[in-house]
Amino acid sequence: MTLTMKNISKSYQDGDQVVEVLKNVSLEVAQGEFVAIVGPSGAGKSTFLSIAGALLSPTVGEITIGGTELSNLSNKALTEIRLEKVGFIFQGANLIPYLNVRDQLLLIAELAGHRGSEAKQKADTLLSELGLTARQHNYPESLSGGEKQRVAIARSLMNNPDVILADEPTASLDASRGHKVVQMIAEEVKRNNKAAIMVTHDERVLDLVDRVVRIEDGHLRG
């Protein structure tokens, strides 16, 4: 399994009370599998995704990404995991306003210590696959919402991650563009044997995933 979450719980101290956000949840996502997490607001979806991507540590439980168990890793090692093994697609594209499309991708490679012609070739290949070659020198302010999300997808794939995590990737898009964006993620999952989790409220894109898991009151069902 590329991503394994085993007996994960997450709680916070809120004054005198302990708030349990996740309650002993487990999930395995295989290579080439695209899983959607659905559920009401406040159910723990964003917390779950943050833990899956090593942005947040669980109170209890184990996470394994690409064969690496995370619980005893240093902060520096966790940063390397996030850069090299996890590709994030956030609700808003979160592009850097002063970088053009191509440089958005090259920055990710540079942060991971990958420079030179190989990184440039990877960026150009991704931009071509996602229909962005003609926009590679444009800045975010001149891109449509759909184009920004495609750049975000390309950026998330820049370091060939084992795991893709998407947080409400269709939130700012109309139905047609949203469906196309999720279809692109699904195609990447199959083409390059990635494991992917998408948190979504958008039931119109659930036909594109392999499995739907519901989160409610801190528990996973599905």
UniProtKB/TrEMBL annotation:
A GO-annotated cellular component: membrane protein complex
Pfam family, one: ABC_tran
Keyword list, A-Z: ATP-binding, Nucleotide-binding, Transport
Domain ABC transporter intervals: 3-222
Gene Ontology MF annotations: ATP binding; ATP hydrolysis activity; transmembrane transporter activity
Protein name per its UniProtKB record: ABC transporter ATP-binding protein
SUPFAM superfamilies: P-loop containing nucleoside triphosphate hydrolases
Organism (species): Listeria rustica
Family assignment from sequence similarity: Belongs to the ABC transporter superfamily.
Family matches, as InterPro entries: AAA+_ATPase (IPR003593), ABC_transporter-like_ATP-bd (IPR003439), ABC_transporter-like_CS (IPR017871), MacB-like_ATP-bd (IPR017911), P-loop_NTPase (IPR027417)
